[in-house]
């Protein structure tokens, strides 16, 4: 301080926590003389305002850390996640949702909202929105609503699941307090939803069993795999039964739900039977 001739200092500690200490000080030139009692009283009156400013800054940093952590977690998911407010405006979407919406194969983002691209889907889409909105208004349990957007050959089917947001990390106390609805988007043509090595380690599957489980999770049928792999259907059914036993599932449809990690139910059909 001496080169600037600031010899007089008045300050103190505004905030003290386990992690840090925030100090503040005012300097005065030598010629101005020392701080008197009136100056010190004025500084004391400033302390509460400085404390509030420091606390607000810490809260903003914590909120940003929470948002960054939440965004990182959502971007790691293999399904698209879109968070909407009470007016169905997009609050946040993860990378997978952005990818699906940009393809415009059934859904698209338009002026901050999600819209269907085919007229035949609009009635069902609006019905799903109204159902979820009514559940929120009536404080009903967050039961999901789902629709499948089917399209022409060469275009993927999109499964859309909407559910009221639960209190917690994405509710009123989380980084996105305006979120009312959580949407899950899945491109049913996506491959690579599960990893063979992870399945072998997690459930004790053999390489052949893990290969079959991955293929089923990607939407392939036993008959198709039998022709492609040059294996009998009896052999594949035997593999499937062992996969069901090791994974603790009872049917092929239940196994697929487990492997793809999707929280919605897909009704079992006769072709799902492993007998």
Automatic annotation (TrEMBL):
Sequence ranges assigned to domain HTH luxR-type in this UniProt record: 202-259
SMART domains xrefs: HTH_LUXR (SM00421)
Swiss-Prot/TrEMBL GO biological process terms: regulation of DNA-templated transcription
Parts of the chain that traverse the membrane: none
GO molecular function: DNA binding
Highest taxon of source: Bacteria
Signal peptide annotation: none
Alphabetized SUPFAM superfamilies for the sequence: C-terminal effector domain of the bipartite response regulators (SSF46894), PYP-like sensor domain (PAS domain) (SSF55785)
Protein name: HTH luxR-type domain-containing protein
Organism of origin: Natronospira elongata
Lineage summary: Bacteria, Pseudomonadati, Pseudomonadota, Gammaproteobacteria, Natronospirales
């Amino acid at each position: 301080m001496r080169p600037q001739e600031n010899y007089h200092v008045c300050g103190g500690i505004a905030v003290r926590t386990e992690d840090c200490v925030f100090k503040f000080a005012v300097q005065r030139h030598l010629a101005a003389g020392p701080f008197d009692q009136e100056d010190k009283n004025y500084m004391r009156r400033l302390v509460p305002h400085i404390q509030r400013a420091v606390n607000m800054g810490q809260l903003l940093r914590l909120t940003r850390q929470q948002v960054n952590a939440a965004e990182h977690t959502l971007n790691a998911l293999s399904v698209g996640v879109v968070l909407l407010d009470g007016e169905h405006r997009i609050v946040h979407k993860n990378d997978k949702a952005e990818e699906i919406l940009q393809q415009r194969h059934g859904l698209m983002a338009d002026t901050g909202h999600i819209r269907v691209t085919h007229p035949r889907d609009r009635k069902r889409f609006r019905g799903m929105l109204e159902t979820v909105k009514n559940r929120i208004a009536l404080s009903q349990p967050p039961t999901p609503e789902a629709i499948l957007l089917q399209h022409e050959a060469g275009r993927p089917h999109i499964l859309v699941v909407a559910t009221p947001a639960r209190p917690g990390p994405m509710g009123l106390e989380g980084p996105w307090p305006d979120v009312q609805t959580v949407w899950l988007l899945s491109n049913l043509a996506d491959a690579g939803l599960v990893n063979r090595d992870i399945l072998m380690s997690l459930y004790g599957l053999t390489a052949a069993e893990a290969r079959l489980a991955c293929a089923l999770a990607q939407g392939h049928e036993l008959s198709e795999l039998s022709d492609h792999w040059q294996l009998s259907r009896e052999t594949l059914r035997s593999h499937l039964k062992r996969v069901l036993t090791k994974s603790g599932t009872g049917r092929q449809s239940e196994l697929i739900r487990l492997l793809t990690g999707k929280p919605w139910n897909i009704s079992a059909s006769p072709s799902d039977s492993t007998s």
